[in-house]
Amino acid sequence: MNIKKHIPNLITLLNLFSGCVALVFAIELNFEMASFFVSLGIFLDFFDGFFARLFKVSSPLGLQLDSLADMITSGLVPGFVMFVMLNNYTLATDNWIAYLGFIITLGSCYRLANFNIDTRQTDSFIGLPTPANALFILSLPLVLQHTNSDVIAAILENQWTLLAITALSAFILNAEIPLFSLKIKEFNFAKNKLQIIFLIASIVLLVVFKYLGIPLVIVFYVLLSVFKNRE
């Protein structure tokens, strides 16, 4: 029995489990723990592919499992979090608007399905990857909980802002925008200059802005990719 071939799929299932746990915490409005388990799932999502390549056991089954796990961790959970936020900050007579938060889930599903058949996304991405989008959405309630800025609170507690973020999220997931890969395949500054600059800038943003740094990092990643594409 070849145990190695099952290791990547086991890691993928742990990603799915992390997403399920994150959903439970999100239902309980414990967004810090929800964010932790989403982050854990994303961490595991990186390593299932790593071990599949290391052990040379990549398979169509693993590809499908990976997308199904991501659908929960990086698709359903952020959609539900946006549903909760919209439900909290819409008028009682307009509570149906909260369900529009699941547009994020629909956009994530479409991206994941398209990713499986798109041969252009082997070394880079086209459209924002679902894990990055999930981190962006999960960071919003944390920014609200930990901010001392009335301006930021007013922005994120506005239903129209949240709906705009929802629509933009679904769009950027599936937009024909090439985004550079974060993988560093060899220790060569010239070949990995963009990744290194992004990494350093991300650390600075997170240290300086704490939770607010998370969405700023994602926005910076997209803008840096757009700037690179114009060269």
Model description:
With 231 residues, the chain is an all-alpha fold. It has one domain (3-181): CDP-alcohol phosphotransferase transmembrane (TM) domain (Four Helix Bundle (Hemerythrin (Met), subunit A), Up-down Bundle). The protein contains 9 helices and 2 strands; from the N terminus they run ααααβαααβαα. The protein has helices at residues 7-27, 31-54, 60-88, 103-117, 130-146, 150-156, 159-174, 193-209, 213-229; strands at 125-126, 178-179. The model has no long low-confidence stretch (mean pLDDT 88).
The gross shape turns out to be globular
- N- to C-terminal separation? 51 Å
The proportion of residues in beta strands is under 5%
Q: What would the CATH topology be? A: Four Helix Bundle (Hemerythrin (Met), subunit A)
What is the CATH class name? Mainly Alpha
Number of strands: 2
- Tally of distinct domains: 1
How would you characterize the largest beta sheet? 2 strands, antiparallel
CATH architecture: Up-down Bundle
* Average pLDDT level: 88
